[in-house]
Amino acid sequence: MRIDVVTIFPEYLEPLNVSLVGKARARGLLDVRLHDLREWTHDKHNTVDDTPYGGGPGMVMKPDPWGEALDAVIGSGVQGEEPPVLVVPTPSGRPFTQELAVELSEKPWLVFTPARYEGIDRRVIEEYGDRLDVREVSIGDYVLAGGEAPVLVMVEAVARLLPGVLGNAESHRDDSFAPGAMADLLEGPVYTKPPEWRGRGIPDVLLSGHHGKIARWRRDEAFRRTVRNRPDLIERADPAAFDKKDREILSILGWGPGPDGRFGRVAPDVEE
Ligand code: 6GU
């Protein structure tokens, strides 16, 4: 996969040289190219922003540098090959989810346009939206000073899904939010050596060698955590995904089916 990032802070993206993403690049599984937006300015002060039409606080990123930068980056692709998906980080975008990470991981080429200030002149998004698949994406319900940190988040979420990046092909089957087996449940707790630490042991079942019991215990723990931390995930889950044992643990946790079959809280929350 090729990823281009156009930014006024290329140094903000240094973490892309480290750890999983850095290794994927070093191994040739991922080709990341950073571009300084100011290289496409022509004035003495390398101006990238200006005051908003209609007034109001803050500054807006000018369309000209973005247009020249994106034309150059998009034009550097190989003739006849698939054009990039343009990913525009913005707090007013659609939520970035594991589902979108999977979809993006299947594309050969992504271009990210992290903005500072109050965002990019709307005409830029319209212009490229006429030619490319453009995704305006938010990483959560909070406001950051710019899109660079969201790009780090999204590139890592996508890179770990690329073939060969994680050691074990099964490694993301059980991810929280992965489509499939543990769908829509958070992952439960994990333990490693030593078997006792500061007087704290580990659950006996994990030492039992009984794979069926271990799988059931993990699923029960996943329900405990999901009920506590993300009850909305249980409420919106398809109840057909819950087996008899799932319904038992949910009942113990104070959850049961409503008139429509979907699960909701039917008894007070249980303390940890
Ligand atoms: Cl993508 N950008 C900014 N500036 N703030 C955000 C965000 C993006 N997602 C959540 N907050």
TrEMBL record:
Q: Which GO terms describe its molecular function?
A: tRNA (guanine(37)-N1)-methyltransferase activity
Coiled-coil annotated spans: none
Q: Where found?
A: Cytoplasm
Q: Which UniProt keywords apply?
A: Cytoplasm, Methyltransferase, S-adenosyl-L-methionine, Transferase, tRNA processing
What processes in GO biological process is this protein linked to?
A: tRNA N1-guanine methylation
**Record: residues binding S-adenosyl-L-methionine:** 139-144
**Residue ranges annotated for the tRNA methyltransferase TRMD/TRM10-type domain, each copy included:** 1-235
**What CDD domains does this protein map onto?**
TrmD-like
Q: What Enzyme Commission number(s) apply to this enzyme?
A: 2.1.1.228
Pfam families with a match to the protein in the record:
tRNA_m1G_MT
Recorded catalytic reaction(s): these are: guanosine(37) in tRNA + S-adenosyl-L-methionine = N(1)-methylguanosine(37) in tRNA + S-adenosyl-L-homocysteine + H(+)
What's this protein's function?
Answer: Specifically methylates guanosine-37 in various tRNAs.
What NCBIfam families has UniProt attached to this entry? PRK00026.1, trmD
Among PANTHER family, the record links this protein to: TRNA (GUANINE-N(1)-)-METHYLTRANSFERASE (PTHR46417:SF1)
Q: What quaternary structure, including any partners, is listed in this protein's UniProt entry?
A: Homodimer.
Q: Which family does it belong to?
A: Belongs to the RNA methyltransferase TrmD family.
Protein name (database record): tRNA (guanine-N(1)-)-methyltransferase
